[in-house]
Amino acid sequence: MKNYDRYRDMTAQDYDKKTLMSWFCSVPANRKILPLLSEIKNKKILDVGLGTGFYTRSLLKNNEIVGLDRNIHLCKLPVRLYEGDATEITKLLKNEKFDLVISMWMTDYLNPDKLSTFFAESKKVLKPSGKLMTTIISRYGFGFVYIHLARTVRKIDKYNYNKTEITEKLKQAGFTSIEIINLTTWLKVPCAYLTIAE
Ligand SMILES: C[S@@+](CC[C@H](N)C(=O)[O-])C[C@H]1O[C@@H](n2cnc3c(N)ncnc32)[C@H](O)[C@@H]1O
């Protein structure tokens, strides 16, 4: 099965070509995500799995951003970058603390144990009232089809979760206030969730 390594030989230009996933899920989801990000100002933010930095770009003007990714060659933006895994944030960032950790369209690469570790690691680098904002592919609708095709046809090791699984994992990681926003395709078919946890 392939994993994040599949981006290793990809250029930023190749990466930014629109895929089935982006047309049906992330593009419509951005109608909910981008207005929320535009309200964020004067924060220190960690973008985990930032890729070419689509979301970082929208936050960069008004905030300080640090990026972490397995494939930092994809990002050409003027931000401090760390090459490493979402499950090893504290190892890479030592004692640094953030107001917000964001991770968009990355958690589908994490199996259940790794997702728990990523949540726990995020909590550790957040300031006391800091928030984690992340997308999670749904077990239902287009989310189900997307992950099924990724695993069976494209042979990519990907995962989706339901709201109960996400909530339990976030609570175990120490988050107490959890908001889960439904993200859908253009035709309102479920595809993912946006979770905001504090
Ligand atoms: C689909 S891209 C999303 C990029 C960006 N967040 C966006 O929405 O445009 C997934 C990114 O997550 C990174 N990634 C995947 N698994 C990772 C992991 N375990 N740790 C860190 N980065 C990872 C990949 O290298 C890739 O850059």
The CATH superfamily is identified as Vaccinia Virus protein VP39
What's the structural domain tally?
A: 1
The amount of beta strand, in percent, is 15-25%
Q: How would a crystallographer describe the biggest sheet?
A: 7 strands, mixed
In what order do the strands lie side by side in the largest sheet?
3-2-1-4-5-7-6
Helix content percent band: 25-40%
Ends apart, CA distance between termini: 34 Å
Global mean pLDDT: 94
Overview in brief:
The chain is α/β, with parallel strands linked by helices and 198 residues long. It has helices at residues 12-15, 20-38, 54-59, 89-93, 112-125, 141-152, 163-172; strands spanning 44-48, 64-69, 80-83, 98-103, 126-137, 178-184, 190-197.
Can you offer a commentary on this structure?
By secondary structure, the protein is α/β, with parallel strands linked by helices. The chain has a single domain (4-197), classed as Rossmann fold. Helix content is 35%, strand content 24%. It has 7 helices and 7 strands, in the order ααβαββαβαβααββ. Strands 3-2-1-4-5-7-6 form a 7-stranded mixed beta sheet. The longest helix is centred in the N-terminal third of the chain and has 19 residues, at 20-38. The model has no long low-confidence stretch (mean pLDDT 94). The protein binds S-adenosylmethionine. S-adenosylmethionine binds next to α3.
